[in-house]
Amino acid sequence: MSRIAFLGTGSMNEAILGGLIAAGTDPSQVVATVRRAERAAELAGRHGVVAVAESENPAANPEAVRDAAVVILGVKPVGITDLARSIAPSLAPETVVVSVAAAVSIAQLEAALPAGQPVVRTMPNTPARLGKGVVSVSAGTSTTPEQLARVKSLFEAVGTVVEIPESQVDALSAISGSGPAYAFYLAEAMAAAGAELGLDPELSALLARETVAGAGAMLAEPGADAAALRRAVTSPNGTTERAIAAFDDGGIPAIIATGARAAAARAAEITASLG
Q: Backbone phi, then psi, for 2, in 5-degree steps?
């Protein structure tokens, strides 16, 4: 079996799908399910894959997983276990079921699937749609190293893949999962500060956006270290040093840590609410 099935193909699953196609996966070996016929036609036209709408074929999901080597569940967290139950009778024992849904635990997913079904929990972030994402993978209780390696190779098409124990998923989510929003928040604050200093608001937004994006590109270079890069542009007794000192005095590092803890705690709360 070599087919890959995407069940629920929203922005994240489409980012993964598009990355696989760009990396050389044969589109004829990919099937995607969606709710609406218009969305199915859009996916088929854009990527050349088989796309089926549930509105036209209510059995789209069970049919898609038959003979699939990997099934990637991309619906919202609240619908994951119901989807898993609906496809359970159609799964081959060796098919790997992958979740990209936040807060849905391996135990919750395994409980909705046949005993012994291989499961992998992942946590991608939104830059995956540009091939610049970070994706964590955590193996289920019946997943072999070879099956996990296959899932990792699939997700390498959309960014950096890290393997972590499931116990660390909430912490990872607080950094890489929510992290893009932190960077956008910083860009917003920089743009507002520039406007307050008298810059044209559109110019200030451009400066903030391009500066954050450029700094991110520098961080992506091999061997880059955030602290070293910061020190390199912080001349003694200069303007940047004064700004960083003000940030430290304002407790910015502690505020970021508090926010990350709040995000991790909320992830645990959502998992409990789904259980």
A: -135, -5
Show Cβ contacts of residue 51 under 8 Å, excluding neighbours closer than 6 positions: 9, 31, 32, 33, 34, 39, 40, 41, 42, 43, 44
Q: How many domains does the chain have?
A: 2
Domain-located, residue 207:
yes
What is the percentage of the chain residues whose pLDDT exceeds 90?
A: 91
pLDDT tens per residue, range 225-271 = 999 999 999 999 999 999 999 999 999 999 999 999 999 999 999 99
Question: For residue 157, what is the domain's CATH number?
Answer: 3.40.50.720
Q: Residue 70's beta-bridge partner residues? A: 4, 96
Residue 273 lies in a domain: no
| 233 three-class SS | coil
> Are 83 and 209 in a shared domain?
no
Q: What is the pTM of this model?
A: 0.92
